[in-house]
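Lab notebook, design round three. We kept the backbone fixed and only want residue identities now. Task for the bench partner: fill in a sequence for the structure below.
Input structure tokens:
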């Protein structure tokens, strides 16, 4: 833990030096966003989540970006633990470190990037926001406080490089090559297994922004490789052994229907394996994901209805989707209804009030849900999450929400069935 904190501290110092130098040289600007979220329940417990993300533009063609996050364990338990303990009580992570260089030799603009972390994943609208400067189009249901990407429906974490070109003012196309930081296929945590399950992938991507249509679509193919043939003590070292091919695909799309509504959709699959040792290739439905969300705008009320299947690694960072912490899930599916209104004001600051009503089947997918219902192994969750957000000075917001897990509450009111969330975000520009 101390080594990770030291490395993170060095990274922050370097970013600080770069930022200070940029301001000293009167470079264009530094911009960023930071936020902190407190989560309390009746057990009692208090957990904190925080993130800091920013970018420095140098000479209009070089961009340095960083995104860091912090998750703590129960803050109250720190008082019950001796100060000399070496147990981990917080997680500090790098969401993104990247450098981008742009050139515009003609009517097209070319972007060359190198990155570490979760870099503009499909399912997050960060890619479209950076390329086109659009507003956030993602679902409110996917709200998260773990960095800019939030709860991306198809996250990946890796080290690589990319090339993106603005074909014209409405279309961008890009190519990525990266190595995943860890194998998502391997269930083993041993260093030997991790060493023998590396993955190198290439991805093609297209983004389109039109007046009433927005789409981000991409697909990748990679190969799992190792430097050993066989297993155990009898394994033989080789230069390169390709075990299998891995295919991924995803799409993010928004269609506006006049001023009265829109349809938002995410769809894709992850880790479809083409293994020569097997005769059949099957899609693991725990790694198939979708989110379909019609949005209806009434004069004073907005209504969003969401049908979803979401992988657990995305669900784990979401604010409004609950699950049993004592169980292990691959995915969850269900429905969410969000009703909100922003007609209220407090001292000329708009206030958005509303509520999420979520009915989810934890550990279910579109293939297994019927069998689980017949076998009585289904794990339903019904959650009501009223919320209110006040915008402050057009650059900050304060959000308070209450997450009530009705099924947990019926069992015992002190097991975390009710959670209070209080969060603050602010934008930074210098």
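Proposed sequence:
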């Amino acid at each position: 833990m101390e080594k990770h904190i030291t490395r993170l501290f060095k990274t922050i110092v370097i970013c600080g030096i770069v930022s200070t130098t940029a301001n000293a040289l009167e470079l264009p600007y530094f911009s960023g966003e930071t936020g902190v979220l407190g989560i309390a329940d009746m057990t009692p417990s208090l957990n904190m989540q925080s993130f800091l993300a920013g970018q420095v533009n140098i000479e209009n063609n070089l961009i340095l970006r960083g995104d860091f996050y912090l998750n703590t364990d129960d803050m109250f338990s720190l008082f019950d633990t001796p100060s000399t303990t070496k147990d981990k009580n917080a997680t500090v992570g790098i969401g993104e470190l990247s450098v981008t260089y742009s050139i515009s030799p003609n009517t097209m603009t070319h972007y060359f990037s190198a990155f570490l972390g979760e870099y503009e994943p499909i399912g997050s609208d960060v890619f479209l926001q950076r390329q086109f400067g659009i507003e956030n189009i993602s679902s409110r249901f996917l709200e998260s406080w773990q960095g800019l990407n939030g709860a991306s429906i198809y996250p990946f974490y890796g080290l690589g490089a990319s090339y993106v070109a603005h074909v014209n003012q409405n279309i961008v196309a890009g190519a990525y090559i990266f190595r995943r930081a860890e194998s998502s296929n391997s269930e083993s945590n041993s260093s030997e297994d991790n060493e023998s399950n590396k993955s190198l992938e290439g991805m093609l991507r297209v983004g389109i922004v039109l007046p009433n249509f927005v789409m981000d679509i991409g697909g990748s193919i990679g190969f799992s490789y190792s430097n050993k043939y066989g297993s155990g003590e009898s394994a033989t070292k080789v230069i390169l052994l390709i075990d299998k091919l891995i295919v991924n695909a995803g799409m993010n799309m928004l269609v506006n229907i006049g001023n009265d509504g829109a349809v938002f959709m995410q769809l894709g699959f992850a880790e479809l394996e083409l293994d020569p040792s097997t005769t059949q290739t099957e899609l693991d439905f725990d790694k198939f994901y979708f989110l379909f969300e019609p949005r209806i705008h009434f004069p004073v009320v907005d209504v969003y209805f969401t049908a979803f299947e979401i992988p657990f690694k995305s669900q784990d960072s979401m604010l409004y989707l609950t699950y049993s912490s004592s169980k292990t899930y691959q995915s969850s599916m269900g429905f969410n209804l969000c009703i909100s209104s922003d007609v209220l004001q407090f001292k000329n600051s708009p206030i958005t009030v509303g509520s999420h009503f979520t009915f989810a089947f934890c550990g279910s997918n579109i293939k297994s849900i019927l069998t689980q219902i017949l076998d009585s192994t289904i794990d339903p969750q019904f959650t009501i999450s009223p919320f209110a957000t006040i915008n402050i000075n057009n650059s900050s917001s304060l959000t308070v929400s209450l997450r009530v897990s009705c099924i947990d509450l019926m069992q015992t009111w002190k097991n975390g069935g009710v959670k209070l969330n209080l969060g603050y975000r602010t934008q930074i520009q210098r």
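Keep this in mind before ordering anything: Residues 1 and 87 are 9 Å apart (CA to CA).
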